[in-house]
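so my prof wants the structure for this chain in the C-alpha cells format not the other one, which i didnt know existed until like an hour ago. anyway here's the sequence
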Amino acid sequence: MSPSVPRRAAALAVLCAMSLMIVLDSTIVAVALPDIQRELGFSPAGVSWVVNAYLLAFAGLLLLAGRLGDLLGAWRVFLAGLAVFVAASLLCGLAGNAEVLIAGRFLQGAGGAFAAAVVLGMIVRLFPSDKEQARALGIYSFTQAGGAALGFVVGGVLTDALGWPVIFLINVPIGVAVWFFGRGVLPREPGLGLGAGLDIPGAALITLGLALGVYAITRTGSPEALIPATVSGAAALILIFGFLVRQHAAPRPLIPLRLLGRGWLLRANAVVVLVFATGMGFQFVNALFVQQVMGYDALGTGLAFLPTPIVIGLVSLFVAARLTGRFGPRPVLIAGLATLLAGLLLLARVPEQPSYVADMLPPLIVMGLGVGVTIPSIVMLAMAGAAPAETGMVSGFSNTAQQAGGALGLSLLAAVAAARAESSAGSTQVAALHAGYTLAFLVAAGFVLAALALTTLLLRRPPQPSAPPSDPIAIATA
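here's what i got, hopefully its the right format
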C-alpha cells in the first residue's frame, strides 16, 4: 500500500534536507578555504584537497551506493550514508591538522554518496505520476539551487563570525534530527538481497575508475598537472573498461549490461552531463566575474546570486509541475534549455563596467526561469523506463553523470576563462578578466545548445517502466 500524502511529503522533506546539507556544505567550504588554509597550514596546492578528497569519494561511490540501495533497501542506505556524513562532519569540525581534515572530508564524500545515490529513485517511487513527480523534483531542484546560492551567504557569515570549524559542526545537530525523523517516515521497502548481485571486484574497479576520472577532469585546467591528469584519465578508462568486462563475466554483476546498453539511458544522461556542466561551471565563473570584474566581496556575491534560486523556486514549485503534467517532460525540457541558452547569451553581452540591475539581474532571472523547468524535466527523463528494482542503479548512474558534468564544466570553463584572459595582452586586468569570463559564458551556451540538439533529435519517446522479472536473480543477470 502506498504511503499517505502527509507521510510522502514528510519523506520528501527528509530527502531534500539531506540534499540541502550536501549542497550547502560544498558551497560553504569553498567560501571558507582561505581561513582553512591559513589556520591549518595548507600549501596553496594542498588546500585543493579539502575539496578534491570529498569529490573523489562522492563521485567514485555513487554507482556502488545506488546498487546497494536496490539490494538492501534504499532507506537503509540513505540513513547509513547520513550517519557517516554527520560523524565525518564532526571529525572535520574538530580537526586540528590538515591530514585529519582531509580524512574527514573523504568520509563526508562517502557518506554523501550513499545518501544522495538513492534520493532520486526514492522520489520517483514515492511520486509515480508525472504531475506529482514533476512537483516533487521541482522542490528537490529548488533545495539544490537555493542551497548553492545560500551557501555563499551562510559561509561568509559563519566563517567571519564563528570561525571555519562551525561550517562543519552545524551539520551535526541538523543531521541527527534529520536521521531520527527520517527513520520514522521513510518508506521501508525491502531490497532484493545481497545474493542478487553485489560484485565486489566490479565495485572496486568502477569506484577507483570513476574517482580517477573525476580527478583527471578536475586537473585539466592546470597546465602543470597535465601529465598527471593524462595518466589518471588513461588509468580511469582502463579501469572502467575492466569493469565492463567484469560485468559481462560476473555471475552476479553489479550493474546489468542490459541497463548500460539502453540507448535512452545513455542519451538522457549525456544531456544531464551537459546541463550540470553548464550549471556548475556557470556558478563558479559567474562568482569570479562578480568579485573580480564588479568588485563584490564574498557576502555581496552571495546576495547577487539570490534572485536566481528565488526564481528557480517559484518556477519549480508553481509552474514546472503544471507544464509537465500538461505537455510532458520532453517539451518542457526543450523550452527550459532554450530559455537557459538565452540567459547565457545575455550574460556574454554584459559590458566591462556593468550595472547589476540593468546588466546582470535580467539574465540571472532568465536563467532562473530556464533552470526551474530544465532540472526537474531532465531528471524525469533520465529516470524514465526504470523498473522499481532498478531505480537505485539508475539514480546512482544519473547522480554520477551530474557529478562528472559538474566537474567537467567547472574545469573547462575555468580553463577557457584563464586562457582567454592571459591572451589579452595589453589590456587592463579587469578588461582581460572580462574577456575571459564572457568567453566562458559563450562556451557554456555551447553546452546548452548541444543539450538542446540531443533532446530534440534523440530523446523523442520516453520508455515506459518495464515490469521486473519475478526472480530477483534474473533482474541482476538479465
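also thought this was worth mentioning. The radius of gyration is 21 Å.
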